[in-house]
Design brief:
The protein is α/β, with parallel strands linked by helices. The protein has a single domain (32-267), classed as Metallo-beta-lactamase, Chain A, CATH 3.60.15. The protein has helices at 10-22, 34-44, 89-98, 119-125, 228-234, 242-250, 260-267, and strands at 52-59, 64-71, 78-82, 102-107, 130-134, 143-145, 150-153, 156-162, 171-177, 186-190, 213-216, 226-227. The strands form 2 sheets. A 6-stranded mixed β-sheet has the order 1-2-3-4-5-6. A 6-stranded mixed β-sheet has the order 7-8-9-10-11-12. Strand 4 (102-107), helix 4 (119-125) and strand 5 form a beta-alpha-beta unit. It is globular, with a radius of gyration of 19 Å. Bound molecules: the ligand N[C@@H](CCC(=O)N[C@@H](CSS)C(=O)NCC(=O)O)C(=O)O and fe (ii) ion (FE2). The ligand N[C@@H](CCC(=O)N[C@@H](CSS)C(=O)NCC(=O)O)C(=O)O is lined by residues 62, 112-114, 191, 194, 197, 199-200, 218, 220, 252, 254-255, 257-259. Pfam families: Lactamase_B (PF00753).
Amino acid sequence: MVLPLRLIPRVAAAARFACAARRPISRRAPLLPPALAMAAAYSTGSGADRRLLFRQLFEKESCTYTYLLADVADPEKPAVLIDPVDRTVDRDINLIKELGLNLVYAMNTHVHADHVTGTGLIKTKLPGVKSVISRVSGAKADHFVDHGDKIHFGNLFLEVRATPGHTAGCVTYITGDAEGQPSPRMAFTGDALIIRACGRTDFQIFTLPRDTLLYPSHDYKGFTVTTVEEEVAYNARLTKDKETFKAIMDNLGLPYPKMIDVAVPANLVCGIQDPPPKI
Ligand SMILES: N[C@@H](CCC(=O)N[C@@H](CSS)C(=O)NCC(=O)O)C(=O)O
Ligand SMILES: [Fe+2]
């Protein structure tokens, strides 16, 4: 495996640890650091003053996260769905309808190996929705994105960052506000970064600001969200030197994904396939 791994300066990490250790701990301190408290607030709904509606959804067979984002300050309430799974398409569409949203884009971070994407199925149920994936992925979609592109929904957008490694076409989607209004920095990392770990990859995620919230495609341990700062300090793979990283990744001993022979061919054509099993 060729790994142009971005090395994390260990000295800087050690200094951060030392700093944190000296900080007095208040009994009344909130349990969540500010960035995480903000994520919790945004995940529970939207106040009148809030433009971004955000929901994190989970598919338990493949441990996949699907993310719903919408601009609820726009009268059309345009929404995007990141990494939908075929088995949970009806749940997701129902939620979108309940919230009065207008789904515009069904997007993938990459060609998944462990589940069939829901994008093709969504298009059959909600005509007008456009599927999105990176051009480099080699998969079919209505709209192809490249590094630096922006996918707009209302006054919000997702910026595309190429984060190859797990797959050549992996991208991370990063939130932004077209009017420059403050909003939480959120990065949807696909499998380029899994909390405290990573997919089989190198990545370009640690260049983001330290308080950026990271939302991966999967979680196998019960985590939901992390930050660049936490992963720079605690990621069990990406804090290692190149040789150690290679040794870890060469010895993961993960089983061949159960769905890979179905999922990859289906995902290369937007997930259209025989009707999925009833949930
Ligand atoms: N057991 C699962 C496959 C799990 C797996 O391989 N996950 C991928 C991301 S999905 S392509 C991965 O990179 N995991 C890294 C890790 O550390 O777990 C199945 O059979 O589907
Ligand atoms: Fe993957």
